[in-house]
Design goal:
The complex is a heterodimer of chains A (387) and B (507). Chain A has 17 helices and no strands. With 387 residues, chain A is mainly alpha-helical. Chain A has a domain of 246 residues: ABC transporter involved in vitamin B12 uptake, BtuC. The radius of gyration of chain A is 23 Å and the shape is globular. The two termini of chain A are 24 Å apart. The longest helix of chain B is centred in the middle third of the chain and has 16 residues. Chain B has two domains: 233 residues, 3-Layer(aba) Sandwich (Rossmann fold); 181 residues, 3-Layer(aba) Sandwich (Rossmann fold). The relative contact order of chain B is 0.10. Chain B has 17 helices and 22 strands. Chain B is α/β, with parallel strands linked by helices and 507 residues long. Classes of the chains: A mainly alpha (387), B alpha/beta (507). At the A-B interface, helix 10, helix 11 and helix 17 of A face helix 1, helix 10, helix 11 and strand 18 of B.
Amino acid sequence: MIKKILDKTLLPLFAFLLALFVGGLVIGFTDNKVLAKISSPIEFLKILGSTVGNAYLALFQGAIYDPNLAEGKSFMAGFYPLSETMVATAPLILCGLSVALAFKSGLFNIGAQGQFIFGAVGASYIGFKYEMPMVMHIMVATLAGLILAALWGGIVGLLKAKTGAHEVIVTIMLNYIAAKFLLFLLSTQYFLRPGRLDPIAPSVKETAKLPSLFGVDYRVNIGIFIALAAAVFIWWLLNRSIIGFRFRAVGANSSAARTAGISVSAAMIATMAISGALAGMGGAIHTLGNQYELTDTVAATFGFDAITVALLGRGTPLGVVLASFLFAGLRVGGQTMQANVGVPVEIVLVIQALVVLFIAAPDLVKRIFKLRNLQEASAMASKGWNG
Amino acid sequence: MSLELRGITKQFGSLVANDDINFKVEAGEIHAILGENGAGKSTLMNIVYGLLAPDKGQILVDGQEIKIKSPLDALAAGIGMVHQHFMLIPVFTVAENIVLGHEKTNRAGLLDLATAREEIIRVSKEFNFEVDPDALIEDLPVGIQQRVEIIRALIYNSKILILDEPTAVLTPQETDELLANMKKLRDSGRSIVFITHKLREVKAVADRISIIRRGKVVGTVQPSASQEEMASLMVGRPVDLTVNKADGKPGKTILEMVDLNVLDTTGRALASKINLTVSAGEVVAVAGVQGNGQSELAEAIVGLREHLTGSIKLSGNELIGRSVDECLKAGIAYVPESRELDGLISSFSITENLILDTHGEAPYSKGIFYKPAMAHQVALERIKEFDIRAQSANDPASSLSGGNKQKVVLARELSRPVELVVVCQPTRGLDVGSIEFVHQRLISERDSGRAVLLFSTELDEVFALADRIAIMYRGEIIAIVPATASREEVGLYMAGIRTATAKGGAA
């Protein structure tokens, strides 16, 4: 039990703290002002401390709450950064769930990026092309994106189930195809905004835009609730539905699942279709929630960050939600860090990479935080005794 | 050399794995350590081999106390170990595996395999092992791989050999060869510690037998002791090794296979011209040496094989062309050969494993809604009925011992409404107590009117349970004999020798 709690919660937390620490050293030792004082230890530590402290303060202010923004306005105005973080969190949750669900079924979905693109394409087209009443327009547009992406993901499952093609290769290739297909679409008369030559589609109609939660000053919209609802749904699917039971069985031991009469091919196809739909929903709410117009870079790196997020979140819906929030916060806050204290935004990538690295090397974290003895004792008790 | 252990004690948390163990093997002696799974045998040997440190106690070699802190110390003291799971690299040759960790180079600085090769050939000749030093490990049968492990120990001059459950992975023939080789090694003056839970083997080779139960040595007996006596010491209560059963009362035909061929993807026959029926209230055993098409035939019956010709009828309904799920639902209970691989999902809880093939039915689900609370409740009943020793129904299946894992599979399969029970190697790797349970249960299934089709490579098991015996050889059923046939006759059929006395055979 101790081991379980330790692995599930403390480990990611310690990994994050450790990443912040090492990241801090990187910030300090790449700063000329800091390096200039390297000959006098006390001065050096002082300036190192203040530089790193300021950088992380800026990161926090850029991601959660900035009192400077609240000055002269309401207290709430300081939460503008949190709103931005939420906007970035929502699609990441959906893409992360896409990867995490596939993990549970024993599939490695690298294709969230391509599925995201198809979700964005479908939502955008319905969004700018048709006139519909408000709620219906959002629903139809989202659904269109979701279906396209489910088909795109389903192809992977079908290929794997029928021909044994490895899903990693297939999804990577389908990502390229999706990206280039998007570029092609944006060059056709169906998608290209009239009067433009660069790849951009018309803006979606007002009726298709996701309603914002706190008025026009904040970009945060109902997309975050859609994402959270999806997380709850995936938890339910995996733990309280027979479909999820089959997914997990196939993921844990496909041979035993098959022997018990579970159709492994059906589970694979269904998993990839649902995974695709999740990533596609990410693309849809990203388009309808804050981008409004489809461009060739609409997917940014959501689909790839999703893999990291799913790993960091240990494949569970709650974990994915928390990890997405963390990653989105780092991304959004990183911009402010660069603007306010001149620490390059790339440092955030270093911290992200370090978090993942430490998660991937649990023994290292345990050793550093002296969690090792506890771990070993429990491992011994569970192993050695098989007479 | 002799090896003596004095007062070895080892504790894991609150669990006393070894409790004041005293044990001695003399030079030129095979001393068996007999005990059920979990009795503490492997812990003891891991202490001797330096993989675990004892809390208390002494290890003496030739009367001198020695400290063993690592396997290297053990090797230096002349103690060699052959593990249950071989420590060999499959893509390396025999010679490469043997020099591994002790690599020597020649003058040019290259790996000196020539010396190793000569050594292997020398040892091979001495004991008639017939091992080619240049063969790749992955190309060798399991029995030969084991000889490589033994050769390795011999080359490093081990005078005391520890064999940890060496027969668990071997076929009956390979087992016989190993037992013969053990005798040769003993006669060459080496001491052998033979760890096992198989009574027959112990009686065949051991000079003395120490029995361990719950971490304690509960007795040392001579091989002349009866199997019942040893089994009782192992289990801690009287054990009845003969299965009590009345004659079967065969009823109507349940399973009927007519001219069944099981093909692989290239069209090659894995099992061919199978004609066999199993009636209600009857146990039909399919005997044969491992790998003669039995596994494929069993898989074909439950729909796990795709390329089939002929007919498989269950109570008159054709099964060929149906999915696994449909075959199981048609009324077949299936206990696969490999519990770990096909029977259970180790990371799933015991509850989830108990409903693996019925999860989509009431009361565990309604529509697509899965109801874990109902599953849990039913699981508790099954755990009680089948005496599954588990701390909690929520524990993963991987936490169970082999016998309890098999009980989970049996509980799941036999609790469904079925007419036919197909069991494959149902007691492989199980301890005495569990074997007794499984056998009694299969007979009670028969007596309740179910048809039982047993696939087994263990002749003891076949004769203990069967009403009729079908013998498979190279994919064909070459004879079907009554249970009153002699062991010798069945043994000859298993070796592929067709005799004129075949009764009712399909040949």
